[in-house]
# Entry
Amino acid sequence: MIRAWGTDAIRRAEAPLLEAGVPLMRQAARALSVTAVREIRVRGQRVPGSVVLALVGGGNNGGDALWAAADLARRGVRAEVALCSPTVHAEGLEAARAAGARITRVVPDGGREPDLDALVALARAAGVWLDGLAGIGLRGPLREPLAGIVAVLGAERDAAPDEPVVIAVDVPSGMGDSGAVRGEVLRADVTVTMGGAKTGLLLPPAGLLAGRVDVVDLGLPLVPAEAAACRMGAGDVSDLYPFPRRQDHKYTRGVVGVWAGSPAYPGAARLACAGALAVGPGMVRYLGTVESVRADNPEVVATPGRIQAALVGSGIAGASAAHAAFEAAVAHGVPLVVDAGGLDVLDRAARAGRLELPCVITPHAGELAGLLHRGRGDVEDDPAAAAREYAISRSVVVLLKGAVTVVASPAGELFSQADSTPWLASAGSGDVLAGILAGLVALLAARAEEGAAGGEPLLGTSALARAAAAASWIHSQAGRRAAGQGGHASRGGPLAGGPLSAHRIAAHVPRVIAGLPR
# Structure
């Protein structure tokens, strides 16, 4: 599990170590220099003679970059230092100078206009940039001269025929304490974050600018329960997934009821059922109106009966059909997964106080914007805030689909899953995800049912939020395999592989589950 904390929590955790004289800056600098060396070697270059540019602002991030420049200079790297603030960390500057780093003052002592020509010349000569311009203390967008400096560097990077590797110190400069992007941000390939991940590194859209996030353990006494956001990995999904036991049979493995599809969208029903089957419940009951569902999945049962989780809405067209399907699902009194055509019906029920079942909704940004009665751009500017607002106002779990999927619970829990591939932006992918989630909820509900006392709720919203994050991870990993990218997000880059069709995703889900650590 990757956990992220806000600025205040990080500073509280740092304070006792700094008072005790623990050299946190030197530890951070060492991690930066090791990362820079690794990136140089990945590019097939020799470390001695390579050019690294340290971009230094006035805060502690600038100090980290200066000490890292000193470390690199001692290893034979040609370390260039661009001072982009009138005042910088004095001890770090002296260390860099003493180690042989070459110092260029981009922003003069008097705070006059920055020498952008000198900065661009340095940037063009360097294969690696260490971004220590601004850190976690930022409130609002970058101000001048840093805003202009970051804009120039971003343009230079984008125009370069051989882009430099940008390594952000703690956070990319310009990133604040949330996922929103309020101004210029220097996009990173790697972010080396100190002590614990920062909230903005996990949440979209800012998190998309952070690249790979490497967390350096500095021994900070951070409290997991105080984390502002979390990201599940393979181990966390394995801990949650109810692997079968020798005594299990199909009814103890969970039964899913699926109300999905319509004459206009018959494929949605088939994809949702395929996703639900793939995650391993004991049975999938299809209770919708598409007769062709069992042609693809003969295991699907088309007769009513007891269920332990329900999926309603995928591909259902028309308000009356959606209302009828929703009411039929609610009548079973089980946890709900509500997608697409069922969202408006659920919203009306929640506003009227008639939704008493634990529920996960799976909108994309446009659908959530409609539920919140605002523009899609407002949701895309800060998806985490929008998901959390709706989750709290309607007492449902929100799985907001996107390049980074956000899961918010009514209790304020927040998950952010960035394991996906852009090739998943394909019609029907969301139907498969809804099916995977419903199947996983049925598995968890069946297991919880065994130990529940009479009248005790089987799955609360916290359990559903974890299930939603896990389902997103499974779906993303299956999508990566279907696109030919392999099973790990760091392999081959985000655009490796090729196009996929949604029906291929479900076929890879069993392989993802089989590969979970036990």
Remarks:
- The chain has two domains: 2-227, 234-514.
- Residues 429-451 form the longest helix (23 residues).
- The chain has 18 helices and 18 strands.
